[in-house]
Each structure stands twice: as C-alpha cells, then as structure tokens.
Design a protein that fits this description.
Length: 263
C-alpha cells in the first residue's frame, strides 16, 4: 500500500510535484506553508487535501499525522531551519527536494532521503514529469529503492546520485538554465532600448536549444567568438560602451569562447 503524503512548503516545486504524486497514487492529504493562501491554492490542485481549514501544523509538529512520507519542498535557505524544527510521525520517511543541499541536513530523522526533480518550475507553466529527470538518494538501500520506485511511477528517467554529485548537477543546471535565461533578459532589454520587437529573438532561442540537444553544445556553438572574428567582437563592444556591466559580461564570455575554441 502506498503511503499518504504531507508536503512542507507550497512553492513552485510543490505546486507541480504534489499533484504528480497525487496522480501516481501517493495521496497528498496535508500541506503546510508559512502562507495560508499558498497552502490553500495548492490544496485545490489535490484530490484529498483539505482547503476548508487552516493547517493544524503551524509549529511543524506532525507527530500525530497519518502521513508516512513527508516531503520538504522549501527554499534552500529555509531548509535547515525547517529540518531542525519538523517533528514527523513515528516511522515516517522525510525527504527534501533540493539539488544543492546534502542529505545530511536531515540526519536527525531515522528515515531520510532526497527526491530532486531536475527541472525549472513556474506556477504559470505546467510540467510533464515524464520529461523530468529525478535524482534520488536514501540513507540506506531500502530507502533509495523505495524512492527509486516512487520516482519511476512519476514517469521520468530516474538516477541515483549522492549529495556531491547532486550539487555538481545543480551547478550544471544553473549554467544551462539560469544564466542563459538571464542573458536572454539582457538581450530583450537591448532590443527594447533600440525600439525593436523582442519577439524577433524567440525563434533563435528555440533553435539554439534544439540544436544543442541534437548536436551537443560543443558542436552547436556559433557566433563571432566561435569563428575568431575579433572585428565583429570589437563592433559589438563599441555598442556597449554606455553599458559597462553588460560590456564586461560580453567581453568575459567572448574571451572564454575564444580561449575554448582557438587556444
């Protein structure tokens, strides 16, 4: 019989992971959040969680809960304090969903593990867990096996990774996702300042990631730095003289690409 679940946190990860577990037969019956509105909105997405009453676990005391799986899905900053305060039911398995926080943060719990979904989450965009790699870690083989089975039932690829491997993967995810997205934000601002349609970049953005996935990023790299075209690089830098921060970033990335491909 699949254990019932309590979620600690109602942010972006919980917004998607809790309903996915619910649909897989792991009934999410309780949700705790510092914000009652967030808790209530998440409960509306679940089959059995109550929206009619505020959570009875304001102090994170779940000692009388019927849940046998507690999922801590809070920010990395909040995770240590939540882990130090949480009182789980006897025999409950406590897991967190962080990519950058080690399993050791849960060492005070007899049963503990990690279920890390490698994906970017926003409440406005639905996520298909069949396309989400899930990284699992357990304090022993039985826990790792249980989490692996649970992850397989969500539909995506499942991998075992220890805390050091998961931190490396989280760093790689930041390089792959967060930094390019920020650069896209800067590029859109450039176009706005020049009174150009920011939508012009959308096909390029999509093709860039599709080609990198198909060919590998090493082969998919293009642009003046990849070609070693310093004349174009200099022209670009002249355009950025009034934006010293962006100029520094452009110069750093261009020199890094030049060094990677031409040294």
């Amino acid at each position: 019989m699949k254990p019932s679940v309590a979620f600690i946190g109602a942010g972006r990860v919980a917004w998607h992971l809790a309903p996915a577990l619910d649909r897989a037969g792991y009934a999410v019956q309780e949700v705790w959040s510092r914000y009652e509105s967030s808790r209530r909105f998440l409960c509306y997405r679940l089959a059995q969680a109550s929206t009619s009453q505020p959570t009875p676990h304001a102090s994170l005391d779940f000692s009388t809960s019927t849940a046998r799986l507690l999922v801590i899905a809070v920010t990395d900053e909040a995770l240590p304090q939540v882990a130090a305060t949480l009182v789980p039911p006897p025999e409950a398995l406590v897991v967190h969903t962080s990519g950058s926080t080690p399993l050791a943060v849960l060492d005070r719990f007899p049963k503990r593990g990690v279920l890390y979904p490698l994906q970017t989450f926003s409440k406005e965009q639905e996520v298909d867990f069949r396309n989400v790699p899930l990284l699992v870690e357990g304090h022993n083989e039985a826990t790792a096996s249980f989490l692996s089975q649970l992850a397989h039932e969500l539909g995506g690829p499942v991998h075992h990774a220890d805390s050091t491997q998961r931190l490396t993967l989280h760093l790689a995810a930041v390089l792959t996702n967060n930094f390019p997205n920020y650069l896209y934000t800067l590029a859109q601002q450039l176009l706005k300042n020049a009174h150009l349609d920011v939508g012009l970049l959308a096909p390029l953005w999509q093709e860039t990631f599709q080609k990198a996935a198909a060919l590998g990023p090493q082969e998919a790299q293009t642009g003046p730095a990849r070609r070693g075209d310093r004349r174009i690089i200099d022209l670009h830098q002249q355009l950025l003289t009034a934006q010293p921060d962006l100029l520094t970033l452009y110069r750093l990335l261009s020199e890094s690409i030049l060094h990677h491909y031409h040294v």
